[in-house]
Amino acid sequence: MTLLCGDCRDLMPAQGPYDLILADPPYGETSLSWDRRVEGWLPLAAQALTPSGSLSVFGSLRSFMATEVDFRAARLRHAQEIVWEKQNGSVFHADRFRRVHELIVQFYPATARWQDIYNVVATTDDARARTVRRKRRPPHTGAIAAGIYRSLDGGPRLARSVQRFRNVHGRAIHPTEKPVPLLDLLVRVSCPPDGLVGDWFAGSGAAGVACRLAGRRYVGCEIDPDMARRARDRLAAILPFPVGEPS
Ligand SMILES: C[S@@+](CC[C@H](N)C(=O)[O-])C[C@H]1O[C@@H](n2cnc3c(N)ncnc32)[C@H](O)[C@@H]1O
């Protein structure tokens, strides 16, 4: 596990190739000092993937529309998107819907075929065939023994593209920190066990925690030295060994 401090454009290409690049870049939508769009990272990321690697980018529809030409120029092809639904959200405009979602869009190089990209099909557990027990009989059934039956319908179903996770308001160390369970899902479906995840805009290092839980290798990069230190401390707290320093 390594958390670098510096500009991802300078530091991250040499750390690859990555099985999965997670990128939560500044959306460029607020007046926060760090929230400035970063130019030129997409082609570098596209070139730093393994032949079966993909790139999952966080953003709003507004931010993706503003940078659509950059994805094209980097020869990245859209694979799918997940809508992350939060329990609360941001009010940017008093006269519009309250925004309670963000997008995570997966891309892969246009030179690759989708069937060659590492992808675990995410299914729901609740729809699997299961044993159903009736615990309490309805009173009008009389002396019928408590029953068990095996549900034959169902079977695995594709996970929904809208995923609900609580955000980390109140205990976050970064103003736009992403929840570990959401990152855990992304890591498990798009990075092979023991594969390498590159987190190009690491912030609080939440993706590092997810990688640790999922057993994937992790290199993160954060440009803000104070945030990088806090992310390192966070990762060190869940690790039995020191988190790597920039060399
Ligand atoms: C949206 S936040 C990431 C939040 C992170 N996903 C989390 O869960 O905590 C974007 C981060 O990218 C950092 N950043 C901005 N430009 C960068 C660059 N060129 N290289 C590395 N990090 C950068 C910012 O300082 C900010 O912390």
Automatic annotation (TrEMBL):
<feature type="domain" description="DNA methylase N-4/N-6">
    <location>
        <begin position="19"/>
        <end position="230"/>
    </location>
</feature>
<dbReference type="GO" id="GO:0009007">
    <property type="term" value="F:site-specific DNA-methyltransferase (adenine-specific) activity"/>
</dbReference>
<dbReference type="GO" id="GO:0032259">
    <property type="term" value="P:methylation"/>
</dbReference>
<protein>
    <recommendedName>
        <fullName>Methyltransferase</fullName>
        <ecNumber>2.1.1.-</ecNumber>
    </recommendedName>
</protein>
<dbReference type="GO" id="GO:0008170">
    <property type="term" value="F:N-methyltransferase activity"/>
</dbReference>
<dbReference type="InterPro" id="IPR002052">
    <property type="entry name" value="DNA_methylase_N6_adenine_CS"/>
</dbReference>
<keyword id="KW-0808">Transferase</keyword>
<dbReference type="InterPro" id="IPR029063">
    <property type="entry name" value="SAM-dependent_MTases_sf"/>
</dbReference>
<dbReference type="GO" id="GO:0003677">
    <property type="term" value="F:DNA binding"/>
</dbReference>
<keyword id="KW-0489">Methyltransferase</keyword>
<dbReference type="InterPro" id="IPR002941">
    <property type="entry name" value="DNA_methylase_N4/N6"/>
</dbReference>
<comment type="similarity">
    <text>Belongs to the N(4)/N(6)-methyltransferase family.</text>
</comment>
<dbReference type="InterPro" id="IPR001091">
    <property type="entry name" value="RM_Methyltransferase"/>
</dbReference>
<dbReference type="Pfam" id="PF01555">
    <property type="entry name" value="N6_N4_Mtase"/>
</dbReference>
